[in-house]
Amino acid sequence: MKLITSISRVIVGLLFIFSGIIKSNDPKGTGIKLNEYFDVFASSMQHAQDTLKISVSDDLGTAEYFDNTFISSDSFANIEINQSSPRNQLFEGDVDSTYGCDIFVVKNGVALYNEFYELGDSIDPVNFSVKLSNGICAENKASSKALSEQWNLSLSAKSKHELSKRVATYPYVQQDSFWVGIFRGMKPYSLLFSIIMCILEVVLGFAILIGWQPKLMSWSILLMVLFFTFLTWYSAYFNKVTDCGCFGDFIKLKPWHSFIKDLVLLFFILIIFIRKDKLIPLFSPLFSINAMIVVTLSSTVFAIYCNMFLPAWDFLPYKAGNNVRQMMEVPKGQRVTDSTVMVYVYKKDNKIDSFVYPNMPDSSWAYVDRLDRIIVPAWKSKIHDFEFIKRDENDINIKDTLLYGKGYYLLLVVTHLEKSHESSWDNIKSMAIEAKKAGIPVYAVTSSPLEMADAFSNEKQLPFKFNNADETLLKTIVRSNPGVMFWHDGTVLDKWSCRSIPSMKALKNLMK
Fold this sequence. Notes:
The protein has 13 helices and 17 strands. By secondary structure, it is an alpha+beta fold. It has four domains: 2-44 and 180-308, no CATH class; 51-172, no CATH class; 339-376, no CATH class; 398-511, Glutaredoxin (3-Layer(aba) Sandwich). The protein starts with a helix and ends with a helix. 26% of the residues are buried.
């Protein structure tokens, strides 16, 4: 048992230290994964909500339907029906103008319906109606009460409608549980939780290795692994989170593999826990406490440094030295599309079975459905969402330029402009001006709205305009807001955080 306990201490201690260091290397990535778990738990505890149904119809045969799911914060819905003043409207391809008016149906400031109606004289009106009802969701017992309201209007050249109705929706809304608010409230602190968790893993692993405070550490490490085991089981069983993030982007584990790994780890931890009274410290109490202080401070500094700058070891697909174009190309011999087989589902005597042609059932079976089952999956690159949105049809294609263009390019990545590091913009502006003088094009991408981006660019007098890109892609490209990448012929030469914006001299050194 001594030998088994010692082996267990080494395995658990080293695995915890390794896991903690890998996650400390990329605390923002771990924070993103925690955010994903918080979203999953919050959404799974939400009640099914009823829907506010708005139907619009007229005597011309037009009918439109709008479903709006209630949310827990709903108390009222403001419904407006507005008719514009009659005017002449010239449609594309028409020679003569048409006399009529616009009709709007607006819910809480958002236009649901906007249609131009052709009107004759005052004795030729158009009848128009708006009806409100609710879906009466079967899972929502509180909303068994039916909602039914209707407005009937007569549109004509002389009519003018500006109706507004405040509809009480709270009787049809189910309030979320206390835990939904807790998990959503934790999201803004996911990065802080990430750093604390990473440091704790390293400290607990080291404490188990040297035998410091064995009872306290055994309890702590058992509770932590029980929590992790529940998370990985939940992810695997409900298929909610496809990667647990146990080892960051260094090792990607499928949910069931993560769960099995935690079960094996739990086995060794239970041995340590049962034998906690027999654990012998390797060093004196004074040396042990000093060593614990050093490890705690070192892991804290390392996690904070990687959060302020960039990961010390970049395991992301866009790391320096990677040729992104080559990584996206399908290797020879690999499939471009999935190889599938059509599976036919039939039913007989309450029994459902699947069949593959030509082994089909007899006529006594009833057809139910047809499914496509993947036999050989297509090759999938680690980079499959590298896309940037053009501002207009005449705008440059940033993706093609970076991947297939010849020469050097600077790419500025800003996940959210409103949350970007303010003090870095002067250095970014200077870098961009000097780069353009040297003939190096500068591109900028953000997930913030272009209207905000243009206003921001004008305010800072930046020598470039922003394009849009997906938020997840930008977080994957560089773990900094903002961050800078230097490209050459489809290869990432280097990347920098907002606290280490490169000078023109540094860029020229990379070009040698």
